[in-house]
Design a protein that fits this description.
Elements lengths: L1 E5 L4 H12 L3 E6 L6 H4 L8 E5 L8 H7 L2 E4 L6 H6 L1 H22 L4 E7 L10 E2 L16 H20 L2 E7 L2 E2 L10 H10 L4 E4 L5 E2 L2 E2 H12 L8 E4 L5 E2 H11 L6 E4 L1 H5 L10 E2 L2 H7 L7 H19 L1
Parallel strand pairs: 1-2, 1-4, 2-3, 4-5, 5-7, 6-15, 7-12, 8-11, 9-14
Antiparallel strand pairs: 10-13
Helix pairs in contact: 1-8, 3-5, 5-6, 7-9, 7-12
Bound molecules: nicotinamide-adenine-dinucleotide.
The site of nicotinamide-adenine-dinucleotide has 28 residues, from helix 1, strand 2, helix 5 and strand 5.
C-alpha cells in the first residue's frame, strides 16, 4: 500500500510512518518541521520505501501528485498545542482550515479514491460539562472572540469540510476525534503535560501543575492510537463517520503528577500555579476529557494494549537514557 502522511514528522505522524513501514508499505511524509522534527523520522530514512519532503502543505506544489499516488492518506498536519494556539491564532486558522481544504480538494480532483483519515480532536466538545463524551454529544463553544478556542473551532470546521466532501463526492474518509495521546517523540514545549512531568521527575525537579490539579484526562498511548487509525481507515463502515479515539482510563492531573514521581522513584515535589500565570488571561480549561469508545470498539474491535503505568515507565527509561547521553 502507498501511504501519504501530512505532518508525518510530528509526534503521531512519525508513529504512523513507522507502523506502516513495518507492514511493508511505502510511506511518503510531508512536513514543514514547525513542531515536528527530523529526529522523529531519522530511524526510518534508511528504509528505501520511505520518502520525506520538507514542505508546507499550504504551498506544496507536489500535493496533487502525492495524493494521486496514495492508497491511504493520514492528514495530521496542524498547528497544535495550547501555547502555539495562544501565540499565533492566525497561523492556526490558516494551516488547520486551508490545509485541510487543500488536501480534500486534491483528493477529489485526483479522481482516485484513497482511504483517508482526517485528524480532529476531543477539544471540539468545548466546555460541554459532561464527564465523558460520545460522538453524538453536543458541541459547546463560547460566544465570539475567545481565542483559546481557535484550535477547536478550526478542527470542527475541518470535520464539516470533510463530511461535505465525503457526502458530495463519495470520499472514503473517517474523521477521528483524538483524545490526549502520549508516548515517545512527544515534546513538552507546546504545553503537553506528560513529557513535561516525566522530564522534571527524572531530574528530581518540581512538577508544576496548572490550576487545582483536580481536572481529569484520559491518556492513550500513541502505539495504540496508530493501530486504531489504521483499522478505521480500512473499514468501509467507518467512512463518513466521526469516531472518538483514546483510552477510557481516567486520572486527575494531580494524580498523574504523583504517579509519574512514584514510577520514576523521584524526590520531586509539586507546585500549583494558576492558568493565568501559565498562559495569560485567555485560557479556560475543561474539567473532564474522557472518551466513550463504544463506536470505535464496534467498528474495529479496538482494545488498548498500553496501560498508563507502562507508558510512563517507557518514557521515564527513555528520558533517563537521553539525560545520561547529554551528561
Ligand atoms: N497529540 C494529541 O494528544 C492530539 C490530540 C488531539 C488531536 N491531535 C491531532 O493529531 C494531529 C497530529 O498531532 P501531534 O500531536 O502529532 O502534533 P505535532 O505537532 O507533533 O504534529 C503536527 C505536525 O504537522 C506539521 N505541520 C504543521 N503545520 C504544517 C504545514 N503547514 N505543512 C506541513 N506540515 C505542518 C508539524 O511540523 C508537525 O510535525 C494534529 O492534527 C492534531 O490536531 C493530537
Amino acid at each position: 500500500m502507498h501511504v501519504l502522511i501530512t505532518g508525518g514528522a510530528g509526534f503521531i505522524g512519525s508513529h504512523l510512518a513507522a507502523h506502516h513501514l513495518a507492514q511493508g508499505d511505502h510511506v511518503y511524509v510531508v512536513d514543514n518541521l514547525s513542531t515536528g522534527s527530523l529526529s522523529n523520522i531519522e530511524p526510518l530514512r534508511c528504509n528505501p520505501q520511505f520518502r520525506f519532503v520538507e514542505a508546507d502543505i499550504l504551498h506544496w506544489g507536489a500535493l496533487d501528485k502525492a495524493v494521486a499516488w496514495a492508497d491511504r492518506i493520514y492528514h495530521m498536519a496542524a498547528v497544535v498545542g495550547v501555547k502555539k494556539v495562544l501565540e499565533d491564532p492566525v497561523a492556526v486558522m490558516a494551516t488547520n482550515m486551508n490545509g485541510t481544504e487543500k488536501v480534500l480538494r486534491a483528493i477529489h480532483s485526483g479522481g482516485w479514491n484513497p482511504q483517508v483519515i482526517i485528524a480532529s480532536t476531543s477539544e471540539v466538545y468545548g466546555f460541554n460539562a459532561k464527564s465523558s463524551f460520545a460522538e453524538t454529544d453536543d458541541i459547546v463553544l463560547p460566544s465570539a472572540g475567545r481565542l483559546r478556542w481557535t484550535y477547536a473551532v478550526t478542527k470542527l470546521a475541518d470535520e464539516f469540510l470533510a463530511f461535505s466532501y465525503a457526502r458530495k463526492y463519495g470520499l472514503h474518509l473517517a474523521v477521528v476525534r483524538l483524545f490526549n495521546t502520549i508516548g515517545p517523540h512527544q515534546v513538552g514545549h507546546y504545553g503537553m503535560v506528560v513529557p513535561r512531568f516525566v522530564q522534571h521527575a527524572v531530574r528530581n525537579e518540581t512538577l508544576t501543575i496548572f490550576g487545582s490539579g483536580e481536572q481529569t484526562r484520559s491518556f492513550c498511548d500513541v502505539r495504540d492510537t496508530v493501530v486504531a487509525l489504521d483499522h478505521l481507515a480500512g473499514s468501509p463502515a467507518a467512512w463518513g463517520e466521526v469516531v472518538n479515539v483514546g483510552n477510557e482510563q481516567e486520572i486527575s492531573i494531580r494524580g498523574l503528577a504523583e504517579l509519574t514521581i512514584q514510577r520514576a522513584h523521584s524526590s520531586s515535589t509539586l507546585r500549583f500555579i494558576s492558568y493565568k500565570e501559565a498562559y495569560g488571561e485567555e485560557f479556560e480549561d475543561v474539567t473532564h476529557r474522557r472518551p466513550i469508545l463504544d463506536k470505535l470498539r464496534t467498528l474495529t474491535g479496538f482494545a488498548p494494549q498500553w496501560h498508563l503505568n507502562d507508558t510512563l515507565d517507557d518514557l521515564i527509561d527513555r528520558e533517563r537514557t537521553k539525560q545520561s547521553c547529554i551528561a
